[in-house]
């Protein structure tokens, strides 16, 4: 299995007056533009996936929709509550177990969860210095099904690197 972790793009600033429910906070126009460039770079670099799964929060859903559009997907990304509030390594491993072990699954989510998730997937101790920036991408490969500490880091792409390729 391959797991591609994609952090959502830049979103509006937290503002309880504008978004009383922070889950509804959308991407900014700059975030949408940068995510399109990042998705174009992913595609250009040959990053492929069979499933696209997103957190239910608006900014992650919008990021996933941009990725889907760039890749020409016809069906909307799947939503998984496990990638939203309370995202945990055991919950994501359980989510990934629903997929065949020979597929590539792209997950779109949030910080600090995704950096911690990436570290836990590639190290039993979880003490790996990975920081996933907005619109950043991490690829992890497993021999078979995903399991904590069993993954191999394939790539860790910063948004600036992706934008440079995706222009």
Please tally the helical runs, counting DSSP H or I stretches of 4 or more residues.
5
Q: What strand order characterises the main sheet?
A: 3-2-4-1-5-6
Report the CATH C-level class.
Alpha Beta
Note poorly predicted spans: none
The major pleated sheet works out as:
6 strands, mixed
Q: Give the C-alpha Rg.
A: 15 Å
| Proportion of residues in helical segments | 25-40%
Q: CATH homologous superfamily, by name?
A: Phosphoglycerate mutase-like
The ordered H/E elements are EHEHEHEHEEH
CATH architecture descriptor text: 3-Layer(aba) Sandwich
CATH structural fold name: Rossmann fold
Topology (SSEs and partners):
Elements lengths: L1 E6 L21 H16 L6 E4 L3 H14 L6 E2 L9 H8 L7 E6 L3 H10 L14 E5 L10 E6 L1 H8 L1
Parallel strand pairs: 1-4, 2-3, 2-4
Antiparallel strand pairs: 1-5, 5-6
Helix pairs in contact: 1-2, 1-5
List keywords for this structure.
alpha/beta, six-stranded mixed sheet, 167 residues, 34% helix, single chain
How would you sum up this structure, described in words?
- With 167 residues, the chain is an alpha/beta fold.
- The protein has a single domain, classed as Rossmann fold, CATH 3.40.50.
- The chain has a six-stranded mixed sheet, with helices on both faces.
- The protein is 34% helix and 17% strand.
Give a brief rundown of this model.
By secondary structure, the protein is an alpha/beta fold. The chain has helices at 29-44, 58-71, 89-96, 113-122, 159-166, and strands spanning 2-7, 51-54, 78-79, 104-109, 137-141, 152-157.
